[in-house]
Amino acid sequence: MKTEQAVLRVSIGVTVLLAGLGIVFGLLSGSFAIVFDGVYSLLDASMTVLALLVANLIAASTSEKPTESRLVNRFTMGFWHLEPMVLGLSGTLLMGAAIYALISALDSLLTGGRELEFSHAIVYAVVTLAAALTMALLVRRANRTIRSDFLGLDAKAWMMSAALTAALLAAFVFGYLIQGTALAWLSPYIDPAILAAVSLAILPIPAGTVKQALADVLLVTPTDLKQHVDTVAQEVVGRYGFVSYRAYVARVGRGRQIELYFIVPTDWPAKKLEEWDDLRDEIGHALGDESPDRWLTIVFTTDPEWAD
After folding, report:
1. How far apart, in whole angstroms, are the C-alpha atoms of residue 98 and residue 96?
2. pLDDT the model gives residue 281
3. Residue 69 pLDDT greater than 70, yes or no
């Protein structure tokens, strides 16, 4: 699990297995919370498949020898713009699933709850909790070096799943223990009550991802990146005596798009193209982050209209 694609493939496989397990045990135990957990996992798996496809496209288009395919040739500006779209869609769907579960849980509470087979529910919760925690730790550890927004969201999804399952396990154990006691009347309300609580808890988690994805889609300028580019450009203007500069910066998923225009005095002596290229290399090194995910354009012109 050293690449983004490999981690996502493992995550998809485990998610599909747990989703099937959740739906089966949910039907056997009569727990809508478990059925929801299975459906939630299937939703997460479908989004992870989409994320994997986008990750493969980005990797193909930014490799040293890009794949000569019709799709890559049709998207010569790259596929970075797809990443925030997928992240935004995934986060929105996860939030929508939590809202739906909350509404369903409240409806069940108001109509007397539902009876459960707690033994089946406990078995499911133990297995799923162990798997979710293991995957969350593995994905988070792998992402320390990969540094992928997709994997970051996937790790959050596994933690959300673990939190949901842990709450379900606690509730199911409580329901099992009160059978035949004076508190047995609470049994029908356990499943919808814990589902409502967990839905409220996990609802805000994808909100940050959706907010960042929306900012990327709208090409909102990242403040820290703009400040860094401005600092480098001002130093270059002062060192070489340019008139001024214009900087345009955007973050699109993992991609960083930077356009720099330097206004050159009209009375400057002519320079060889190689000299201008050397200056571009110097500015590029000063900006740093020379990864395949940086789209850098540096232009020198005497006409400010080309920069505005």
Report:
1. 5
2. 92
3. no
Q: Which domains does the chain have, with CATH numbers?
A: 4-217 (1.20.1510.10), 223-306 (3.30.70.1350)
**Which has the higher per-residue pLDDT, 57 or 250?**
250
pLDDT over 80 (residue 51) = no
Model pLDDT for residues 76-123, shown as the tens digit of each residue: 777 788 888 888 888 888 888 888 888 888 988 888 888 888 888 899
If one compares 240 and 38, the residue with the highest pLDDT of the two is 240
E strand segments, the chain: 244-252, 255-263, 294-301
- Work out the pLDDT band at 24, boundaries 50, 70, 90: confident
Contacts of 179 (CB under 8 A, 6+ apart): 118, 187
The rounded distance, in Å, linking the Cα atoms of 37 and 42 is: 9
Instruction: Return the closest-CA partner of residue 193 out of 33, 30, 41, 52.
Output: 33
Give the count of beta carbons closer than 10 Å to the beta carbon of residue 271. 12
Give the residue from 240, 251, 234, 246 showing the smallest Cα distance to 289: 251
Q: Identify whether the C-beta of residue 187 lies closer than 8 Å to the C-beta of residue 179.
A: yes
Phi, psi of 250 (to 5 degrees): -150, 150
Q: At what angle do helices 82-110 and 207-217 cross, to 10 degrees?
A: 150
Nearest to 262, CA basis, from 274, 244, 249: 244
Neighbouring C-alpha atoms within 13 Å toward the C-beta of 169: 14
Q: Where do we find the tokens 């059925």?
A: 35
